[in-house]
Amino acid sequence: xxxxxxxxxxxxxxxxMGSREESADEAGARRLGQxxxxxxxxxxxxxxxxIMRAASEGAHGAGGLxxxxxPNDRNRPMAGYPNEFVDIAVYTGMYEAxxxxxxxxxxxxxxxxxxxxxxxxxALALRAGTPVIGLNCxxxxxxxxxxxxxxxxxxxxITEMDRIIGKLRNKG
Length: 172
Prior knowledge:
By secondary structure, the chain is an alpha/beta fold.
């Protein structure tokens, strides 16, 4: 099956961040990826396993475009990077430093369960002014930054994503 992607405007980019380990949040990540694609947005993840793979699978299955910001160089493979659902793999060779790209590129970031990498992405996004929606994610508070918008379900996260992108779209 060939997927054709047609972009008639600058796309909105939604980051979904979370653990590379297997997690109970993978079904939610899959649904988030699907919702991103169904709205014509580009999904950005770290391009690996766990939450990243689940979100990528959801977006890919819905015909969306998946951008993976990878920790490794093309010539230095890492197991699980990129996952099989990544359409555009960006090989950074930056390992954890790639979190800056993951945090500052999307128009909105949705953070799920994760560890220190997810925590750093949340903090970097908040510092950059990127809106962050948190679902079962680590607690982060930064002085002078907008707080993480905490939600209790995937559907609430999708509603907030729609609201934030709608506000950004209206700013034009």
